[in-house]
Amino acid sequence: ILFLIRNPKDVATSFFYFCNVMSPLPSYDTWDDFFVAFMNKKMPWGCYFEYHSKWNKYAADENIMIISYEELKENPALGVKNIAAFFGIPLTEKELQGVVDRSSFQSMKKNSQKTHGTFGNVFFRKGGISDWKNHFNEDQNKKMDKAYEECLGGTILGTKLKYDVYCKA
């Protein structure tokens, strides 16, 4: 099992935009309204922290590889190489580079209409990291930090998230 994780602040930011363009999902007039719903476990697919807390029980299992979105953004080639090794898939350097090129955000966004049909424009917004800094106010930042610490601080998944690197103001 490949378990891809992403820091909760960027997850919230991304999901805010996703909800506001996907008509079946609840939309939010403001970021503040969304943040309250996110922190009060009122999201269509459940609570980020509860989901990760449940998965943390399996984080040390040998058949599970945990990798973060941020890790893949920092070094896509190493991420692909590690994923291939985990699944026992040998890759030549040319194959590795082909996977890296085709799985880049820019490439996936460019091909999104072919790969995702009419939803292509919905699934690919920015593809970066740290956009949360443009949305969170100081109080929201403190609330998210507290929730992280209570649910994931000191856990295997929490360590893998590198919260101090990607989520501290």
UniProtKB/TrEMBL annotation:
Residues 1-155 form the Sulfotransferase domain. Its EC number is 2.8.2.-. It holds the Pfam family Sulfotransfer_1. Gene3D superfamilies: P-loop containing nucleotide triphosphate hydrolases (3.40.50.300). The keyword Transferase applies. Belongs to the sulfotransferase 1 family. This is Sulfotransferase. The lineage of its organism: Eukaryota, Metazoa, Chordata, Craniata, Vertebrata.
